[in-house]
Design goal:
The protein is α+β, with helices and mostly antiparallel strands and 139 residues long. The chain has helices spanning 3-14, 20-27, 31-43, 79-87, 113-125, and strands spanning 65-73, 92-97, 104-110, 129-136. It has a 4-stranded antiparallel beta sheet with strand order 2-3-1-4, with helices on one face. β2 (92-97) and β3 (104-110) form a beta hairpin. The longest helix has 13 residues, at 31-43. The protein is elongated. It holds the Pfam family AsnC_trans_reg. This is Transcriptional regulator, AsnC family.
Length: 139
């Protein structure tokens, strides 16, 4: 990955619906060269997908609760399945594999306690978590 790839990713993170021609104008490449680079980033797994985030699902940066959840997976659950599940959940900002008593540390932002409860239930019912420990960020 080079500086142009990084520039492409930066623009797509702000506006994933941008046309290849406009993206190319912003980064200084032709439409065809830009499209080829985006497809290469998709094919190599750097870009894994695009999604629509609804206003009701995406709290503003200062609103809602920010939390960190330690997650222990069901031993029968594959890590890749859990990571794929996390990519579909808009409230999940990041999920990292860690050492210690838990398998993952998940960074989230939710609208409030009801949304946190729904996410934790889904994490156990759909994501394969057997144990969780949640810590709220105070600042």
């Amino acid at each position: 990955m080079d500086d142009l790839d990084s520039a492409i990713i930066g623009v797509l993170q702000v506006n994933a619906r941008i046309s290849f021609s406009e993206l190319g104008r912003q980064i200084g490449l032709s439409t065809n060269a830009t499209a080829a680079r985006v497809r290469r980033l998709e094919h190599s797994g750097v870009i894994t997908g695009y999604r629509a985030v609804l206003g009701s699902d995406a709290p503003l940066a200062e609103d809602g609760l920010e939390a960190f959840i330690d997650v222990r997976l069901d031993p029968a659950r594959k890590s890749e399945e859990f990571l794929e599940w996390t990519r579909r959940i808009t409230e999940i900002r990041d999920a990292v594999h860690v050492t210690g008593a838990y398998d993952y540390l998940v960074h989230i932002r939710v609208a409030g306690t009801a949304a946190l409860d729904r996410l934790l239930r889904s994490m156990k019912n759909d994501g394969g978590a057997t144990h969780t420990q949640t810590r709220l960020a105070l600042r």
